Amino acid sequence: MKEKMIALIEDILNVPGGTITEDTVIGDVKEWGSLEHVAIIGELEEKLGIIIPLEDTLEITSVKELLEMGTR
């Protein structure tokens, strides 16, 4: 599931495969702004059935945190 999530994130951000890893910090990715963040959360829900509560989405600062929330 983690691989699918990372691939979806890379697709939304339009970055090459392998750019995003579990250790990626969101603030370090110039393509990852607030609109992209909302798009990622929406696509995770729509395409992978992953529900992340709105209050939790605002606190996510890394891909690792996003993956942990998505695999609960």
Shape: globular
Q: Report the mean per-residue pLDDT as an integer.
A: 93
Radius of gyration: 11 Å
Helical segment count:
4
**What are the secondary-structure elements, in order, as H or E?**
HHHH
Helix content: 40-55%
How much of the sequence lies in strands comes to under 5%
How far the N terminus sits from the C terminus, by CA atoms, comes to: 11 Å
Q: Low-confidence runs (pLDDT<50, min 5 residues)? A: none
SS content category:
mainly alpha
Number of strands: 0
Biggest sheet details: none
Describe the structure.
It contains four helices and no strands. The N and C termini lie close together (11 Å). The protein is globular and about 25 Å long. Helix 1 crosses helix 2. With 72 residues, it is mainly α.
Task: Using brief descriptors, characterize the structure shown.
72 residues; mainly alpha; single chain; 4 helices
